[in-house]
Amino acid sequence: MSADLTGVQWRKSSRSNGQANCVEVAFLKDGRVALRDSKQQGEGPVLVFTAGEWDAFAGGVMDGEFARP
DUF397 domain: from which residue to which, for each copy (predicted)? Predict the structure, then answer.
């Protein structure tokens, strides 16, 4: 299912330092979450996750599941 991204507010991490490793996230009205590569300046692909998928990912990040070995 596609998402209407008209007028959404994209947010970039405060840890972003402009070194070409940035993603932007937008929280959609229907609860889904959109993610895009900031280098594409709005022209590239967008991944859209359900609220549950996003919560599982964010929880994994906070729990250190994705830390480098």
Answer: 8-61
pTM: 0.80
The helix (run of H) or strand (run of E) holding residue 37 is: strand 33-37
Structurally, how many domains does the chain consist of? 1
Q: Go through 33-68 and write b for each residue having 16 or more CB atoms within 10 A of its CB, e for each that does not.
A: bbbbbbeeeeeeebebbeeeebeeeeeeeeeeeeee
The residue written with tokens 């590239």 in the block is 44
**53: containing domain:** 11-62
Structure tokens at 28: 């959609």
